[in-house]
Specification:
By secondary structure, the chain is of the alpha/beta class. The protein has five helices and eight strands, in the order E-E-E-H-H-H-E-E-E-E-H-E-H. It has a four-stranded parallel beta sheet. A two-stranded antiparallel ribbon has the order 2-3. A two-stranded antiparallel sheet has the order 6-7.
């Protein structure tokens, strides 16, 4: 058993032909369902890239109106490399009675911080959806966030500066 007192937790995962990978937190349920369906139907496999990105699914990242607004940057890679795969768990693996702190990472890249407090429309397979950060939180995750067992973290290793108003908007969104 590891002596590690913290782990990264991901709400949604995708099963590929050769492995199971976490999907970036903060994606709308319809985007998650689309990614899982695409991976299954196209029998996608993991090509071993260091950031655990699934290129065929994330190619829409930041395409206008795609809904793919978060992706793995370097935090997941860092944890996997330095702490091992056991440091990365699914929401169902969170033990509410252990002494481990579980962090729910949002990896910020290309100005996507605003998606936590702004709603927008996007299209998946011809269906228009409205993104709201609150919709990305499943019932178990929401309960674990309320109890403090899971704590959201914003990892901003790519663009380390945001203005004060943006950060206040994010704080207000988390309080809601």
């Amino acid at each position: 058993m590891s002596d590690l007192k913290f782990k990264l937790v991901y709400q949604d995962w995708v099963q590929l032909t050769n492995t199971r990978l976490p999907i970036a937190n903060g994606l709308h349920p319809s985007v998650v369902a689309w990614m899982q369906k695409e991976a299954s139907e196209k029998e996608l496999s993991f090509n071993g890239n260091q950031y655990c990105r699934i290129w065929e699914l994330e190619k829409e990242y930041f395409s206008k109106g795609s809904g793919v607004v978060f992706q793995h940057c370097s935090l997941l890679y860092f944890f996997k490399k330095h702490y091992g795969e056991d440091s990365i768990v699914g929401i169902d693996e969170v033990n509410e009675t252990d002494d481990i702190t579980y962090f729910l990472p949002y990896e910020l890249d290309r100005g996507n911080l605003g998606y936590i407090y702004d709603n927008f429309d996007f299209n998946i397979d011809g269906t228009t959806n409205t993104y709201s950060y609150a919709d990305t939180l499943g019932p178990r995750l929401l309960e674990l966030l309320k109890t403090g067992k899971v704590k959201p973290i914003l990892f901003n290793g790519t663009e380390p500066s945001y203005d004060k108003n943006t950060l206040l908007n994010v704080e207000n969104a988390f309080v809601k």
